[in-house]
Amino acid sequence: MEEGLDEGNADYDGAAATLEELAREVEKAGLLALLSGKHDNAPAIVTIHAGAGGTESHDWVDMLVRMYLRWAERSSHPVRILSELPGDVAGTKSITLEFSGPLAYGLLHGEHGVHRLVRISPFDGANRRHTSFASVDVIPRVEEDTRIVIGENDLRIDTYRSSSAGGQHVNKTSSAVRITHLPTGIVVSCQNERSQHFNRESAMKVLRSKLAALLREEHKERLEDLRGAVKDIAWGNQIRSYVLHPYQMVKDLRTDYETGNTQRVLDGDIEPLMFAYLRYKKERQETAGPGEANG
Q: pLDDT (tens digit, 9 = 90+) per residue, 166-209?
């Protein structure tokens, strides 16, 4: 009799788990249906900058890069590194990556902002707790925009040797390209290709995308106000906190979504955070007037 009950309970538990998984998939499909904006299906250009803190913040950039690369692998979004600036001792000062694949920008745009890490630093011999910050900037890649006119006299183009791990050929040739748009001060670079021509072409695509983002925010008076979510890369401006000590928690401060499984998040399981942001954005759009719920 007990054996029959056990089998019945197992069947019930299995059916409940299946229904729960089905409900999650239905909700996910509904949220993905919200991604119908002009640029949601465009590739995403993601730039991560270390905040103050030296090696500790440079290592935090590396941890975020690993998190996004793991997510891209899980979700089948191809990635390429456009440029990177290594830290003086370890880690990375800044890096720009391009994510392609379905809804790349639509899914990643909610990652835009300052990310805060609290942990026992592996670089501190006294095992003290450190707080680090990094900013994540996300823009859609724009192929063409008739509003954007870039004159040759508006550009300063410099070539240099790649400073990242790119093999002997990269280190021996000045194939990396840095382009400065003089009217706005926007600087972009690309070093992932061995050919200077292809690096220049990639850098120009990033520049056009940044200028398009600037046009979308042209009502702002100053370039440093281009994205209100990113101010100082420091305390008080973060969108998300990752706490590894004295307790384990990842919390998004916009949506109030939180989880105690920090390792799973850092291993790339960030879709629950992404979908929580999409729900939050939908709710804001439903309660705000036209044009008030962006960002």
A: 433 333 457 899 999 999 999 999 998 778 989 999 999 999 99
Bond prior to 246 in cis (omega within 30° of 0) = yes
Question: Which amino acid is it at 290?
Answer: P
- Of residues 293 and 265, which shows the higher confidence score? 265
Q: Which of 113, 131, 22, 66 is nearest to 269 (CA)?
A: 66
- Domains annotated for the chain, with CATH where assigned, are 44-145+229-287 (3.30.70.1660), 152-216 (3.30.160.20)
DSSP 8-state code for residue 226: S
Residue (of 295, 275, 293, 263) closest to 33 by Cα position = 275
Query: Counting Cβ atoms within 10 Å, is residue 118 exposed (0-12), middle (13-18) or buried (19+)?
Result: middle
The residue with greater pLDDT, 101 or 28, is: 101
Q: What's the chain's length in residues? A: 295
Q: What single DSSP character describes residue 123?
A: T
Alpha helices in the chain (DSSP H): 2-32, 55-75, 104-108, 167-172, 196-216, 262-266, 271-287
Per-residue CA distances from 184 to 117, 140, 215 (Å)? 32, 19, 11
pTM of the model: 0.79
